[in-house]
Each structure stands twice: as C-alpha cells, then as structure tokens.
Specification:
The chain has 209 residues and is mainly α. Helix content is 90%, strand content 0%. The protein contains eight helices and no strands. Helix 7 (116-132) runs antiparallel to helix 8 (136-208).
Length: 209
C-alpha cells in the first residue's frame, strides 16, 4: 500500500520519524480492512527498521506481536518465520534458553507443514543454542538431523539439476529435429520448383519440334 511504500522511501533517506509514522499508518489501514498480508509486511518492515538501528529488544517485541497476531489468524507458515526470527534475536541477546523454547515449538510446527528450508534454519539455531548452554548431547542430535536435511536438500537439488540437464538435451534434440524437417521442407520446395521449371522447358522444346 501507499503508506508502506512511502515508509520505505523515508527509511531509504534515513528519515526515521517519517518512516515510523508511515509504517504505523499502514498498520492501522491493514487492521481496518483485515488485510493479514499487509499486517505481516508491517511487522517485517518494523523488524528491519529496528534492526538497522541495532535495537534488538524492540525487534523481539515486534516478533512477539507478530507471533500473537499470526497465532490468532492460524497463519502457520508466517509463524515458522516469526519463531526462527525471535530465536535468532534471543541468541543475539545471549538468551539461548528463550531461543530453545521458541525453536522447539517451531520444529513441531514445521514438521506439520513439511517446510524443509525453515527446519534447516531452525535446527541450525537450536544446535547453536544447545551448545551455548553446554547441552552438547542435544546439540549433537540436532546437528545430526540438520546434516540429514542438508544432504536431502542437496540430493533434491542435484535431481533438479539433472532433470534440467536432461530436459535441455531433449529440447536440443527436438530443435535439431525441427531444423532438419524445416531444411527438408525447403529442399523439397526447391526440388519442386526445379522440376516445374524443367517441365516447362521440356514443354517449350516440344512446341518447337
């Protein structure tokens, strides 16, 4: 929306008060019309706004509000991002136990949704959190799960690369086949033209005999 975009413009020119005012105006409008996507855009912009100014505590408050909002709306996909974000911020604030609390909830949610990328991030964060509190056994278990996902992701990416390569080769072969057919059509037309000319010459010659 216009208010959100204008807020981004103010932020780009380091006008923090103007940006803050526009972002809040955007939030009010989003709430008035019940636009969940715009509300989440506000939380994302606010997180960036405070992050740029090194205000981690305020970022955590923003994520807490986002979690409350998306929980009330049943927006599980947005929640997985919120949980990972607040866990990372908690680690930044040297609060690994808080991070673990959020990440445990998130991993359950991610397993329900089956979003591997979010789980990869969550496992990386919780491994770090366990290491920070000296729970190396739990850290190892989380890390082993992380490695399996990374290997699965790599295997899946390799499959896509192989498929793309195969399709590319098939398309090349089809293009060559099309070119060959087009070439044959041109040759056929040229031959027909030559034959017609030859036929005409024979007919002219026959008239003169």
């Amino acid at each position: 929306d216009a208010s959100n975009n204008l807020g981004n413009v103010y932020e780009a020119i380091d006008d923090s008060s103007g940006a803050f005012q526009m972002y809040n105006q955007s939030l009010q409008l989003a709430n008035d019309i019940g636009d969940e996507e715009r509300v989440n855009s506000y939380y994302s912009n606010s997180n960036t706004f405070y992050g740029k100014r090194g205000n981690t505590k305020q970022q955590i408050q923003v994520q807490q509000k986002a979690i409350e909002f998306n929980s009330s709306k049943g927006n599980k996909k947005a929640l997985t991002d919120n949980y990972n974000n607040i866990a990372a911020l908690s680690l930044k604030e040297e609060k690994p136990k808080e991070a673990i609390k959020y990440l445990k909830q998130n991993i359950v949610l991610i397993d329900e949704l089956g979003t591997l990328e979010s789980k990869e991030e969550a496992l990386g964060l919780i491994t770090e959190a366990y290491e920070r509190i000296g729970d190396y056994e739990s850290a190892l278990k989380s890390y082993q799960k992380l490695v399996k996902i990374q290997e699965a992701n790599t295997e899946e990416k390799n499959k896509h690369i192989q498929l793309a390569s195969t399709l590319s080769n098939e398309l090349d072969e089809k293009d060559k086949r099309i070119e060959l057919l087009q070439s044959n059509i041109r040759l056929s037309k040229d031959n027909m033209f030559l034959l017609e000319n030859k036929k005409g010459q024979v007919q002219e010659l026959a008239k003169t005999v």
